[in-house]
Amino acid sequence: MRSPPYSLSKFLVGLRSASAAVVLAIVGLAIGGGGFAATCTPKLKPTTPAGFYATKYEKTPTAAAMTAMGRVLFFDTALSASGRMSCASCHDPANAMGPANSLSVQLGGPQLQDAGNRAAPSLKYLQTSPAFTEHFFGSEGNDSEDQGPTGGLTWDGRFNQPHAQATAPLLSPVEMANADSRDVLAKLRKSPSAAQFRQTYGDHVLDAGNESLAWNGLLLALEVFQQSPAEFYPYTSKYDAMLRKQVALSASEQRGLALFNDTQRGNCATCHISVIQSGAFPQFTDYGLIALGVPRNAAIPSNANPTYFDLGLCGPLRTDLQSHPEYCGRFKTPTLRNVALKKSFFHNGVLHNLEEVIRFYSERDVHPEKFYPRKADGSVDKFNDLPAMYRGNLDSLAPFNQPNRRQPLFTEAEIADLLAFLNTLTDGFTTP
Question: How confident is the model at residue 140 (pLDDT cuts 50, 70, 90)?
Fold first, then answer.
């Protein structure tokens, strides 16, 4: 079983995502903020902070001020070329920090008419994602087993910290569509957010010549905000209440959980870990990157080009691993927390219903015609979004690759039970 490291010292060594307090501790070490530096014991200071986290601001920011600043920036539409798009446009707090609509890919650009290439994921429960590595060794189970490519942020794991990930939508021509960081800062200076930004970092942070300082401050505020537990990882689902022994799952929910965990049936928990590990509540992901061979989505404009393929870990958006054909077709395993609120699924948003997703796992290999188009000769064009040369990369664990199975994996009653269980992962549950 794949499992993420939960050691805080490992997060700091790798400059991985951490809590707001820890991020501020790192900043405090760099800028002399004694209050936060004091929260770090010697064990939590393996290296001298460098680069981004060593930025020295005119005014030492507090955790509360940076969280508040990040929240304002997260909703600030003035930072986009259209003047109508913010981070929250694709990551709506009312929809578990995911899209509020059912579009496969979101629309952005200068006129909000340009379609992206991938579905917008939720930003919740990313706080323990490890830095990307090609060779991951888990801290639970067989820790000598190389579990392969793991970690990072976004569908292809190419960013290791939220502040780095935040640059993508700000500068993407099909999202907020800024030309560069200076373009973003020019908009920030004219934005209603500017006054609060100066209060947070100092009166001169937005002055000419301080662009690097201001850019780092903008990204750091967004990162600290995204480490806010109440908004990004509250652990308030019914499943969490069950783990706290505050409530019991219904009979249907229990049956669904059993199917989810059963290594001979759903085998879902192999990638979507459902148990407490190292004292931490489950994230329902192992942070791995795997190939599922989901159908090509004709609703994505770039897919109109028959020679274009989104191959995830080996490109085209990620460029450093393009010489690794064994990685082609692999995408990040998302958390299943709040999955019942999603309106599009998989990296290309090709499915739009959770029951349909369960049926894909249940029937992909026995009734592929339900998911894939037919070729001119009438045969099913299975795995039509992954070139044949890369199909050896497809995940072969249960529930897939069972040549003797002739019937769907799940009965109708079992699908209902799985849906009941997955609904227990939605935040906002209140005990009776």
Answer: low
pLDDT tens column, 258-281: 999 999 899 999 999 999 998 999
Q: What are the phi and psi torsion angles at 283 (to 5°)?
A: -95, -10
List phi, psi (to 5°) of 395: -60, 130
Q: Can you say whether the dihedral through the CA atoms of 311, 292, 284, 239 is positive or negative? A: positive
Rounded to whole angstroms, the Cα distance separating 8 from 16 reads: 9
Chain-centre distance for alpha carbon 233: 13
Give the CA dihedral 415, 418, 423, 425, nearest 10 degrees: -150
217 and 266, same domain (yes or no): no
Same domain, 401 and 316: yes
CA gap 140, 389 in Å, rounded: 34
- What's the CA gap between 147 and 137, in Å, rounded? 6
The single-letter code of the amino acid at 18 is: A
188 has which bridge partners? none
Query: H or E segment at 107?
Result: strand 107-108
What pTM does this model have?
0.88
Query: In this model, does residue 13 exceed pLDDT 70?
Result: no
Domain that holds residue 45: 8-131+158-231
If asked whether residues 221 and 298 sit together in one domain, one would say: no
Residues 290, 347, single domain; the answer is yes
CATH number, residue 175: 1.10.760.10
Q: Using alpha carbons only, give the angle 311, 302, 314 rounded to the nearest 5 degrees.
A: 15
**Total structural domains within the chain:** 2
72's CB contacts (< 8 A; 6+ apart) are 193, 196
Does some domain include residue 144? no
What kind and span of H or E run contains 403?
Answer: none
Measured CA to CA in angstroms, residue 251 lies from 243, 257, 258 at distances of 16, 10, 11
